[in-house]
Design brief:
It is built from 24 helices and 27 strands. By secondary structure, it is α+β, with helices and mostly antiparallel strands. Helix 7 runs parallel beside helix 8, helix 9 packs antiparallel against helix 12 and helix 17 runs parallel beside helix 18.
Length: 733
C-alpha cells in the first residue's frame, strides 16, 4: 500500500479492507473527497461499527414512546396534555481530553442542537463527568477546563443546568468522560423530522461560518485511542454560545413557517452526515454547491468544507419558493442563512465546487457501514479480598477523611458555576436524588437523574449495569416520579479487544433487560469507544439518564431533612447490623484499600416494590423527605440529608460495635431513607405492613448540628460541612 494512501486511511480511521470494500461498492477508486465522506460516515462515532449489532437488543417500547429509537436526532416520550419530552445524552470525551474548555463547551452546544433539531425548546441540561487523579497536573487542568467550558457555554445560552454527577478514578487519567444531557419540550403534533422530503426541495445552511475546526473530529479523535501522535487541537471544535442562543430562537420560529420541511444539526462529520443522513431518511439524493458555503477561511478545499465540524450550524429543508421567507427569519435574528443545494430523485450525493462535479456517490453505500462482531472474552482476574480494619483509635477522623473525599464531597462549588434557575422552572435544584423541572402547561414535574457506576461494572459489567439502571430509576421514584424512558451513553475502551467487547456485550444485555423490567424504554443514546491512553483503558462506564414524571402537584419531595423531631425510617432493610461482605466493591473499599473485590446483589422485583412503595407514600403525603442509599453507604446518605437541610440526626437504633464499619459504609441495593412527622407514624406503619418491603426505624432528625451514632461517636456537622463543601473548590483553585 502506498505511503500516501496509508496516511489517508490512518487519518480517517479506515482499514485497508474497508477501502477495498468502498471500491467494490462504488465500482472505482474514490477520490480524496469521496474517501473523506466514507471515512466520516463509516467511523465508529457515526457508523457504530462495533456497537450497532449490540444496540439491536434495545427492542422494547411502549405506548408512550412517540419516535422510534435511533430514527431521529433524539427520543420523544408522551408527557400528557399533547406535549412530548425530547431528550438525549451524548459524549464529547476525546475533544475534552485534548482541549478541555472547548471540548466540553461544544459538547453542550451539540446536544442542545440535537434537541432543537426535533423542534423542541431546550429546557434543561445535565452532565455526567469522569476525571482522573487530582494529584496530577494535567488532570487538574482537564477538570478546571471542562467545568469552565460547561458553565460558560451553558450559562450563555439560557438553559438551566440542573445537576449531574462527577466521579474521580485513576482509569480516567488523561481520558475524561464528558457526557452531556439535554431535555426539551415540544407539542406532539409539532415534532420535527430530519428529512429532505420531495424532489426540488431546497437545502439551507444557517448559523456560523464554516472553518477548519473539527476536521477529522468524528473519524479521528472519536474513533481512535488517545495516543499522543494522533491528538491535535485542530480536531477540536470551537463554540460560540451567543450565536447558538440566536440560532435556537430562529429555528423555533422557522419550524412554524409555511413551506418548512425538515431540520438537522451539523454535528459529527458536519455537512457530510447532516445531508447524507437526511437524504437517506427520505430515500432521495442531493446536490450541494460548495461555492455557496460561507467560509471563515477562503483557502478551504471541498474536503475541508464537507468534513468541517464548525459549531452552531443547522441544515434547514424547505419547499421551493419558501427559502426567501425562511432566510428572512434568520436574518432577523442576525444569523446568516443561504441556499446550498436541493433534493434530487437519484439517490446520490453530487457535490459541486467551482462549477465542477467533485464527488458523485450513491447514498446507500455511504450509510451502509460495515459492522463487526467479536467473540466476547471475559478477563481473567484474581480476586484478593482485603482484610478490613474494624477497630479504629480515631473513627471520627476516619469518617471525616472518607466523607470529604473527592468522590463523596459536595459538588456545590461546581453547581454554583451553573445557572440552574434561568427559565424559572427548576423546582428541585442540583444535589438531590434527582433534578426537577416544572412543566408550565400542566403543573407536573419532570424528574431527571443520571447515574453510572464504573466500580461495579469493572467487576461485573452485567450486574453492574443492572444496578446502575435500578439506581437511576430509584432516584426518580425516591422523589415521587414514575420512570418514563431512558437515554444512555456507553463509554468503553477499544472494542477490538475481546475483553472490552465482552464488557460492552454484557452491559447492553443488562440495559435491555432492565429497561424493559422498569417499563422505561431506551429511546436515544450514544456510544463512545476507544477511550484508552497508552496507560490502559477506562473502566467500563455505561451512563444511564432516566426521565420520570411526578403528577403530585401538592407536594415536592426533596432529599434533605426538613423538620426537627421528624422520625427517620429505612425502607428496604430490616437489620442495620451488616457483615463485611457489604464492603466488597463499595466506595469505602475503593477509597481506603484501592481495590474492588465484589459487588452487592440485586433483586429486581424487590427493587420495583420499593419504588412503588415510596411513590405511594409521597402520593399520600406521609413523608417529608427521601434519599436513596447508594455510594458510601448509609452514613454518607444520612450526612447528605443533614447537611443539605442544616439539620442533625440521632440514631435510636443501636448498631452492634463489631458491625459498625459495614453497617455505616456497606453498600446494599434497594434502600431509601425517609423522614416523617411523628403524627404520621401510625399511618406510615400501616402502609409499610401492607407492602412486601422490609423497613426499620433508625432515628430522629433534630436541630442540633451533630450526628449521634453512639455515646462514643458523635460527629460535629458544622466542622464536617466546612470540609465537605470546600473539597472540590480547593481542586478548582
Amino acid at each position: 500500500m502506498k505511503k500516501d494512501l496509508e496516511k489517508k486511511l490512518y487519518d480517517l480511521a479506515l482499514k485497508k479492507s474497508e477501502y477495498d470494500m468502498i471500491i467494490q461498492k462504488i465500482g472505482r477508486e474514490p477520490n480524496d473527497l469521496e474517501l473523506g465522506l466514507f471515512g466520516s460516515l463509516w467511523s465508529e462515532h457515526c457508523g457504530y461499527q462495533h456497537s450497532k449489532p449490540l444496540l439491536k437488543k434495545f427492542k422494547f417500547t411502549n405506548e408512550n414512546i412517540l419516535v422510534d429509537a435511533g430514527s431521529q436526532n433524539a427520543g420523544a416520550v408522551d408527557i400528557g396534555n399533547g406535549l412530548a419530552a425530547v431528550f438525549k445524552i451524548e459524549s464529547h470525551n476525546h475533544p475534552s481530553a485534548v482541549e478541555p474548555v472547548q471540548g466540553a463547551a461544544t459538547g453542550v452546544g451539540g446536544i442542545v442542537r440535537d434537541i432543537l433539531a426535533m423542534g423542541a425548546r431546550p429546557v434543561a441540561l445535565m452532565n455526567s463527568l469522569r476525571f482522573g487523579d487530582m494529584s496530577l497536573k494535567n488532570d487538574i487542568h482537564i477538570f478546571n477546563g471542562v467545568i469552565s467550558g460547561i458553565s460558560e457555554y451553558g450559562n450563555c445560552i439560557g438553559i438551566p443546568n440542573v445537576g449531574g454527577e462527577i466521579v474521580f478514578d485513576e482509569s480516567y487519567n488523561n481520558n475524561p468522560l464528558v457526557n452531556a444531557f439535554c431535555l426539551g419540550i415540544v407539542k406532539q403534533n409539532e415534532i420535527v423530522e430530519a428529512k429532505v422530503g420531495e424532489v426540488g426541495n431546497v437545502l439551507i445552511l444557517a448559523g456560523s461560518r464554516t472553518g477548519k475546526d473539527g476536521i477529522h473530529g468524528a473519524s479521528g479523535l472519536a474513533s481512535q485511542t488517545l495516543e499522543e501522535e494522533s491528538t491535535s487541537k485542530s480536531t477540536v471544535q470551537v463554540g460560540d454560545p451567543f450565536i447558538e442562543k440566536l440560532l435556537i430562537e430562529a429555528c423555533l420560529e422557522v419550524v412554524n413557517e409555511k413551506g418548512f420541511v425538515g431540520l438537522q444539526d451539523l454535528g459529527a462529520a458536519g455537512l457530510t452526515s447532516s445531508t447524507v443522513e437526511a437524504a437517506d431518511r427520505s430515500g432521495k439524493g442531493i446536490i450541494l454547491n460548495l461555492d455557496s458555503v460561507k467560509l471563515r477561511d477562503n483557502t478551504m478545499s471541498p474536503y475541508e468544507i464537507m468534513l468541517s465540524e464548525s459549531q452552531e450550524r443547522m441544515l434547514i429543508v424547505c419547499k421551493p419558493g419558501s427559502q426567501e421567507s425562511i432566510i428572512k427569519i434568520f436574518e432577523k435574528w442576525d444569523i446568516e442563512a443561504y441556499k446550498i443545494g436541493e433534493v434530487i430523485s437519484e439517490p446520490n450525493i453530487n457535490i459541486y465546487y467551482k462549477n465542477e462535479l467533485v464527488a458523485n456517490i450513491p447514498i446507500s453505500p455511504l450509510v451502509d457501514c460495515p459492522t463487526y462482531t467479536l467473540k466476547p472474552q471475559k478477563a481473567q482476574s484474581k480476586i484478593n479480598k482485603p482484610k478490613f480494619n474494624m477497630d479504629f483509635q480515631n473513627l471520627t477522623e476516619h469518617i471525616f477523611d472518607f466523607v470529604t473525599s473527592n468522590n463523596l464531597s459536595s459538588r456545590n462549588t461546581v453547581f454554583q458555576r451553573y445557572d440552574h434557575q434561568v427559565q424559572n422552572n427548576t423546582v428541585i435544584t442540583p444535589g438531590h436524588s434527582s433534578a426537577g423541572i416544572r412543566i408550565k402547561e400542566t403543573g407536573d414535574t419532570l424528574l431527571l437523574s443520571t447515574d453510572g457506576n464504573s466500580r461495579y461494572c469493572s467487576f461485573d459489567p452485567y450486574l453492574g449495569t443492572l444496578i446502575t439502571v435500578a439506581e437511576s430509576c430509584r432516584n426518580i421514584s425516591t422523589l415521587g416520579g414514575t420512570p418514563l424512558a431512558i437515554t444512555n451513553c456507553l463509554n468503553f475502551g477499544n472494542p477490538e479487544n475481546p475483553e472490552i467487547y465482552y464488557q460492552l456485550d454484557k452491559a447492553t444485555t443488562a440495559l435491555s433487560e432492565a429497561s424493559e423490567f422498569f417499563n422505561a424504554p431506551v429511546i436515544s443514546g450514544n456510544v463512545s469507544l476507544y477511550n484508552e491512553t497508552n496507560t490502559g483503558s477506562i473502566k467500563p462506564t455505561p451512563i444511564i439518564s432516566t426521565l420520570g414524571i411526578n403528577k403530585n402537584k401538592n407536594k415536592i419531595i426533596k432529599s434533605n431533612f426538613t423538620n426537627g423531631n421528624d422520625l427517620v425510617y429505612l425502607l428496604g432493610s430490616k437489620d442495620l447490623n451488616l457483615d463485611e461482605e457489604t464492603l466488597l466493591g463499595s466506595e469505602y473499599e475503593n477509597h481506603f484499600y484501592n481495590s474492588i473485590s465484589g459487588i452487592p446483589s440485586l433483586d429486581l422485583n424487590k427493587e420495583k416494590e420499593l419504588h412503588q412503595l415510596n411513590i405511594n407514600l409521597i402520593e399520600q403525603n406521609l413523608i417529608n423527605s427521601a434519599n436513596d442509599c447508594s455510594d458510601g453507604g448509609l452514613l454518607v446518605s444520612l450526612i447528605e440529608q443533614c447537611l443539605l437541610g442544616d439539620k442533625g440526626f440521632r440514631f435510636t437504633y443501636e448498631i452492634d460495635k463489631s458491625c459498625l464499619i459495614p453497617s455505616l459504609f456497606g453498600e446494599v441495593n434497594s434502600r431509601i431513607i425517609v423522614s416523617i412527622d411523628k403524627s404520621n407514624e401510625n399511618s406510615l406503619i400501616t402502609e409499610l405492613k401492607s407492602s412486601n418491603v422490609p423497613y426499620l426505624k433508625i432515628g430522629e432528625v433534630n436541630n442540633n448540628p451533630e450526628l449521634y451514632i453512639n455515646d462514643n461517636l458523635v460527629l460535629d456537622l458544622l466542622l464536617l460541612k466546612q470540609k465537605w463543601l470546600k473539597k472540590l473548590g480547593q481542586i478548582s483553585n
